[in-house]
Amino acid sequence: MRVTRLLIEDFRNYARAERTIASAVTALVGRNGAGKTNVLEAIHLIARGDSPRARDDTELVRWGANTARVSARVERIDDARTVDVVLFSPPAGERRRPRRYLLDGAGKRADEAIGELAVVSFFPEDVQLLAEAPSARRRYLDSMVAQVYRRHRSETREYQRILEQRNSLLRALRSDVRPSALESGSAGAGEAGPGRTMELSFWDAELVRLAASISLRRLEAVRELVAPFREAATRFSGADSLSLAYAAQVEGDTIAERATAYQALIGQKRDRELWQGTTLVGPHREDLAVSAHGRALPTFASRGEQRSAVLSLKLAEAAWIRDRVGELPVFLLDDVLSELDPGRRDALVDALPEDAQTVLTAAFEAGIPERLIERADVLWVKDGAIA
Fold first, then answer.
1. Distance of alpha carbon 88 from its chain centroid, rounded?
2. Are 40 and 121 in contact (CB under 8 A)?
3. pTM for the complete prediction?
């Protein structure tokens, strides 16, 4: 798959820019703050529906503007579509508006538009992925899986809603049950009356239904990542000791098996959930684990070793997407090459498939390996303009 044309309007520091994107390598070169990363961010937004750097759409709209637009022409093996995202930043005091998605000019729901393009990205912040809280790795894994299984995105969103409802009920139950029962650890939902008990049972069932589906997709994806991850890790470090696993609360190779296991675990943790007023069971408590010789990598690895492990994970992700959808994703590399030593830089260049589209940034053209420059379209970026 390819992005053949990109248009951005009032996005970050760009008033308007439109470019044809090379099918092989596009190198965006310019000083820091010129707007190179913003181009990668725009492509990422089209592909995954989120920004790796912003949590609110207002951060993406150019200062002084009320709307921003990103439009990309996406070509795949069997078709070509134009995907548009319109972002809003209303003036102070006006009601916030949700973003709009369009496919070939027709308005669509987010779940219908996101997924036309698949990307694998590496931004400077990603080097912290393995050292961050488990929630960061869960977001990464869910975002990856959703590029192949669009249903996963809607299910994780629905799961979050159910989790909030269930937590709210648990907090209410905590205040309803007798303090002596909480202190003794003998509290149960029945302490608050049959109505509350039935309500909690309903949210238990909803949680289990989605937990089983979400966790099984994650588990299957991680299992399929193991081999390409080890291959890439060996390429970067020469060591084959790194392992990748999905650290789940339950076992089971089918949705039914995992649902039964989650339901049983909820029963075991019922009193503790009532005591703490929060949900302790489900995929929101699970993790993507990278280790070496049985030790979690972040506990002893250097920053360079962690960067290599994350790059290995990203290359494994690309192989997984290719195997699932039959096409290579687009690679987005934000100033990655300058952060690598010569050996790892060469290993990364060797690992990038020649038939994949790559968009990368660099402060200086001299910092881009010759093997990439030879087949790259070099674009100079300055103050929100691309030349």
1. 22
2. yes
3. 0.92
